[in-house]
Amino acid sequence: MTNDMTNGSPIKLILSFMVPLLIGNIFQQFYNMADTIIVGRTISVEALAAVGATGSISFLIVGFVQGVTSGFAVITAQRFGAGSENGVRRSVATSIILGIAVTIVMTAISVLAARPLLEIMKTPSDIIDDSYNYIIVIFEGIAAAVFFNLFSSILRSLGDSKTPLVFLIIASIINIILDFVFILTFKMGVAGAGWATVIAQFISGILCFVYSLKKFPILRLTKHDWKFSWKFAWQHLEVGLPMAFQFSITAIGTMVIQSALNSLGSTAVAAFTAGSKIDQFATQPLASLGVAVATYTAQNYGARELERIKKGVTGAAIIATVCGIVGGFVVIMFAKPLVALFVGSGQNEVMSLSKEYLVLNGVFYVILGLLFVYRNALQGIGSSMIAFFGGVWELVMRSLVAFVLVSYLKFAAVCIASPVAWFGATIWLMIAYFIIINRIIKKANFAKINY
């Protein structure tokens, strides 16, 4: 049931791992997208804006969860690559304990901070109450996000990207059904969309957990595996926390953009919401490729197959370039009909602004693809702090564009803030990757000679 990525063609391995992951991520985006489509179509454009206004706040918290659980799984993948079954089980047990702690802390912080964050970001008064009603449900259900992300990351660390796909498809169907039930039948408004998402995530988490225990003997933990070691836990935190903070730093950057966007009114917020949802959907091949690179590099780093890491990352960069060109072409050419999925007829200003967003972002998808490849390669070899500083650089550049240019360029400044940040961070990450991987290889070769 596992997939050893330390042998065979690097590009074939990365692609075979990426494709199920991509399909799964598309379905995950699909049921997130379903919330906004159903809200925009069945409630109002203002409700669509209310859900959209929470996007950056949600990413701040949920992104932290995704980052930290993915970081824990890097250690699991390294142990798997090294051929240590005991190390894999100890890593899983430690990840579960740390995951419970993360759930408690992040739930408490996010629930208390939800309303103040919306106010700090100057969320328009006509949508702030609905924004709060939606985001508080997402935050109260953080346990579901931790549950699913932890076990899906563990399965991926062993090379299985197909199992989470199946459960995400099931969850997406459940989410859409519950959206209609909660919003149309029970009249729960935007909160109903939030509950549909949380319940769907929880169900997919349970399925992932049960399946992993039944089908993966290597994950059946014993009493000895639960013996907690602060030293071993710190190894997980050393990778997990920088990855989590890197997600959060990126989220803070999007919050800065959202704050600037909010000053332009609810029409601009609705347009940005529709455009960004399409953007997130279109960039899933790039994000999926990044996760595949992280697992590939982690396993090969654990096996000390360092030259294979270079070959795989180079191949992934080529794939990212192709995917970026194709994805950018599609969103630019079909921007208008894609935006029409979110808003009804007569919303000409929303349509126009959303198209502007997609064009200005789509032309830079190649840069974003390279960012995902080199960031995840660094994380896979344990250099999470370097990737974190790339996130800091993104924050700085997003903030400069949002604060300095929005008064001059208006909505266009919000549109170009992310591409500018991608460009700056990618340069940093590429330089860092080549320096670090060559240094590691040189050190390993030196050790072999002296041995």
UniProtKB/TrEMBL annotation:
<feature type="transmembrane region" description="Helical">
    <location>
        <begin position="357"/>
        <end position="374"/>
    </location>
</feature>
<feature type="transmembrane region" description="Helical">
    <location>
        <begin position="313"/>
        <end position="335"/>
    </location>
</feature>
<feature type="transmembrane region" description="Helical">
    <location>
        <begin position="411"/>
        <end position="436"/>
    </location>
</feature>
<feature type="transmembrane region" description="Helical">
    <location>
        <begin position="51"/>
        <end position="75"/>
    </location>
</feature>
<feature type="transmembrane region" description="Helical">
    <location>
        <begin position="12"/>
        <end position="31"/>
    </location>
</feature>
<feature type="transmembrane region" description="Helical">
    <location>
        <begin position="134"/>
        <end position="153"/>
    </location>
</feature>
<keyword id="KW-0812">Transmembrane</keyword>
<dbReference type="GO" id="GO:0015297">
    <property type="term" value="F:antiporter activity"/>
</dbReference>
<dbReference type="GO" id="GO:0042910">
    <property type="term" value="F:xenobiotic transmembrane transporter activity"/>
</dbReference>
<dbReference type="InterPro" id="IPR048279">
    <property type="entry name" value="MdtK-like"/>
</dbReference>
<feature type="transmembrane region" description="Helical">
    <location>
        <begin position="165"/>
        <end position="186"/>
    </location>
</feature>
<feature type="transmembrane region" description="Helical">
    <location>
        <begin position="96"/>
        <end position="114"/>
    </location>
</feature>
<keyword id="KW-0813">Transport</keyword>
<dbReference type="Pfam" id="PF01554">
    <property type="entry name" value="MatE"/>
</dbReference>
<feature type="transmembrane region" description="Helical">
    <location>
        <begin position="386"/>
        <end position="405"/>
    </location>
</feature>
<protein>
    <submittedName>
        <fullName>MATE family efflux transporter</fullName>
    </submittedName>
</protein>
<dbReference type="GO" id="GO:0005886">
    <property type="term" value="C:plasma membrane"/>
</dbReference>
<dbReference type="InterPro" id="IPR052031">
    <property type="entry name" value="Membrane_Transporter-Flippase"/>
</dbReference>
<feature type="transmembrane region" description="Helical">
    <location>
        <begin position="192"/>
        <end position="213"/>
    </location>
</feature>
<keyword id="KW-1003">Cell membrane</keyword>
<keyword id="KW-1133">Transmembrane helix</keyword>
<dbReference type="InterPro" id="IPR002528">
    <property type="entry name" value="MATE_fam"/>
</dbReference>
<keyword id="KW-0472">Membrane</keyword>
